[in-house]
From TrEMBL:
It is an enzyme of class 2 (transferase). One of its GO terms (molecular function) is ATP binding. GO terms for biological process: coenzyme A biosynthetic process. It comes from Tahibacter aquaticus. This is Type III pantothenate kinase. GO terms for cellular component: cytoplasm. PANTHER family: TYPE III PANTOTHENATE KINASE. Its EC number is 2.7.1.33. A monovalent cation. Ammonium or potassium. The active site is at D102 (proton acceptor). Catalyzes the phosphorylation of pantothenate (Pan), the first step in CoA biosynthesis. Pathway: Cofactor biosynthesis; coenzyme A biosynthesis; CoA from (R)-pantothenate: step 1/5. Homodimer.
Length: 259
């Protein structure tokens, strides 16, 4: 049995994994102290032989995670690092270590899921776009603020612009709250569509559009092209590592949090 952990910017996601497949657990909000949250989350978990971690979290959170895994399972976690090539995926960056490990592992899952070229749009704290050829070659990507982060930045930098939970997303807003929410979400949708169009033109072939992240279901209806939503791509990519698609990752924690 393997423990797989995706330590992100705002949440920790985890799953148990064995020959029967992936069994995701309840995500943990790490704005609260992590140790007691994990003790509760893993209270009924079975023994595990290996723990694989993808982390873009702060060093303090990584240290708490290591302590929790040692205390509960009695093993040392292995922190996966971005590599130039692994599991059929070849990274576009001249310095592969600068590609966030969460993006790297998600691309590995994407390559296993989609038989041809694909664009992955992950909507979390940031809006992260990556293009992957059908041969597993990473073509590059873009990073922008997520719609929520756009809205927070706008509200923080203006004195009289306001937002409301009840605000709608419309093409032509007739009040400020709707205008703010609509502008941020439609800007994100437009960037995704433009990126997908550019990749499709470059490859001169049909390109699948895959959405991931906590806000994927909100973005999908705003897009003017078909898109599929895939959950837990980082965990699914870690499962590929656990299944032995490459040699075991380093057991050392690495500075792979740059996106």
């Amino acid at each position: 049995m393997n423990l797989l952990v995706d330590l992100g910017n705002t949440r920790l996601k985890w799953a148990l994994h064995d020959a029967q497949g992936l069994r995701p657990g309840t995500p943990v909000d790490h704005s609260r102290p992590l140790l007691p949250e994990l003790e509760l989350a893993w209270r009924d978990a079975p023994a595990v032989a290996r723990a694989l971690v993808s982390s873009v979290g702060r060093p303090r959170l990584e240290a708490e995670l290591v302590q929790a895994i040692r205390a509960r399972f009695g093993i040392e976690p292995q922190f996966v690092a971005t590599q130039a090539q692994a599991c059929g995926v070849r990274v576009a960056y001249a310095r592969p270590e600068k590609l966030g490990v969460d993006r790297f592992v998600a691309l590995i899952a994407l390559h296993a899921l989609v038989p041809g070229p694909a664009v992955l749009a992950s909507v979390g704290t940031a809006l992260v776009l990556d293009a992957l050829g059908g041969d597993g070659v990473h073509l590059g990507g873009l990073i922008a603020p997520s719609p929520l982060l756009m809205q927070q930045a706008l509200l923080g930098a203006t004195a009289r612009v306001t937002a409301a939970e009840s605000a709608r997303i419309v093409e032509l807003a007739d009040d400020t709250e709707d205008a703010v929410r609509s502008g941020c979400w439609l800007a994100a949708a437009a960037l995704v569509e433009r990126f997908h169009l550019q990749v499709s033109s470059r490859l001169a072939a049909p390109v699948a559009l895959v959405l991931a992240g906590g806000a994927a279901s909100e973005l999908a209806p705003l897009l003017g092209r078909p898109a599929r939503i895939e959950a837990d791509l980082v965990l699914r990519g870690l499962a590929r590592f656990a299944d032995g698609c490459i040699a075991s990752p380093s057991s050392e924690s690495v500075e792979s949090g740059n996106s």
